[in-house]
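Researcher: Here's the sequence for the chain we discussed earlier.
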Amino acid sequence: MCGISFLLDRTGQLGPAAAARMRQATAHRGPDGCGSHQFGPDGGPGTVYLGHNRLKIVDLSDDAAQPFLSADGRYALVFNGEIYNWRELRAELEAESVPFRTHSDTEVLLHLLVREGTAALPRLRGMFALVFYDSATGRTLAARDEHGIKPLFLADTDEGLAIASEIGAVRASGVVVGEMEFLREVPLRPGAIQRTTFAPNALHNYLTSRFAWRPPWWNLAKMPPGAALLWEGNERLGRDIKTPETTISTPPTTALLPEVEQLLRQSLTRHLRADVPVGIWLSGGVDSTLLVALGRETTGAAPPCFGVSLAPSEGSFGTDDYHFGRQAAALFGAEFTEFVVDDSILLHTDEALAALGQPIADSAVLLTWWLARHTRAADVKAVLSGAGADEWFAGYNRHRAFAWYHRNQAWVEHLAPLLRATGRALPTGLNVPGRKQFQLARKLLTRIGPKDEGVHAAARFAALDDSLPKLLGYHVAELDRLMYPSSENDLLAHDRRAYLPHDILALTDQTSMRHGLEVRTPYLDQDLTRFLAPLPAAELLRHGPKWLLRELLNQRGGQAFTRRRKEGFGLPLTRWLRLPTYSWLFDPVRRRDHPLFANLDYGRTQEFLARFLTGRHDLGAEAWALITLFRWVDLQGNLVGQKIDSPVQPSA
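Model: Thanks. This is the structure I predict for it:
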């Protein structure tokens, strides 16, 4: 686990200083060591630089340090992630008399790439982002795991090719990537006045989906999950998607449970392989509790667990997750370290946002940053997370809600006007009993569209409130139906291909690695997800959301966790952001001269803030989206190679 960087200097003008800046920009990802290697000793055109910052997890010796070179010095590899089946792959190679000089997954990966090239990628079980260089041919391979657990960014221009684990490292290279797309002058429509702004589609997508689909700098790209890119010298040879096609047939329901159990056990066995202790982030939900139960069965003792708790005084804005976290740890004999969260976490907003290469409007950014910080301070380097379980086992409330809507679409749409009016009347922003149920009902009822748009309702269940896109000073009609699923199967595919990599996994990687903490995701084991891929949503929802995981937990005495209502650990943002103490968070949103108001309507934005602060509806997620967007933009330009060490204080 680490931060990687690669630089091909095409002009000779960038030099070793640029490579050093790239390496420094990801130093937080690998606090246990750093390394570099250069091909082309004159530093002129065509010189290649590889850099690495190491977090020691497997084979703690210096022999496993990167960049890792073949014995003859021809091949070099920089690699971020973990190959969990490296022992099995190594045994295959040793049977063919391949010599090894370390006990690392890195060396196994190097030998596989030398022997098989991109054909080796589908054989890997794990999370990875890598750059593999052949100095004899000048060929460069960059690749990323099929789920997008580990990130990889690049800029390919006349000046050079820069590839790195983080956007900040690519920007630090000096490769020309252009100005920020968010603040670029773009024509809105034929004949319209050009404004300095977001590109329209990026801003619209962010205000709708919580994230932008691509990095906000021109000529800077994010490698898609499962992609492999090849260059030979200065020429890109193309992109090859390496996710294999699923060939298994859908098994009968009676065979699903034992097969899933076997695959989960296999995944846990792999994910617990490390030369340092591996903990678990435990919330008390089904996903993390099942990991604790299976972890104890796998190793004989439950791994150490870490979680967060909210004060009971938060009332209906709070969560009962922490009660269940304690119960789960007690039931399965795990040591449980609990970190208390209160509204003072908002003082760390800018620190958390500084970890992001692009804005993500999810309060989990702040919570995950904070949890990772405290977990790492407890001298733990690696933890298991339940990320991916909701997407692959149909666990979100929206999956169940859309399935119900789809079954009852005819009569629901007939009553849509009445239902929408009823939904708008529900008091979701007040601290009253039943508020969370009102909130879910309001989301369902108010997002029912007219009949000719009914098939697109699923996207609205997952989107932010439509009051945010209305803040735009223009209408992006061609994007209104972008990625709108038409069935439960499409909704699951959307969550797996878009929401999971662009939101959940992106924020998890960036916030945890800001503290040098590795987060492992057993529910995204390739063997498991390839088995689940052909299962229709109806099968995954047959006995309710995540019924397969619930049944496995029930078999282990976990009924107290499977019968509870799904909550997730969300922060009570609506209540906290309405406190006068934190009004300073909105300062950039109130600045009429902020560059984002070139395309956001200032008056509508201020009306939204007033409605949020005084209204009866829970718009905390939408308010947080604006805070994230404005404060993140203000943070840019000053963060490359820097670290924010103390909370940004409120303005006077």
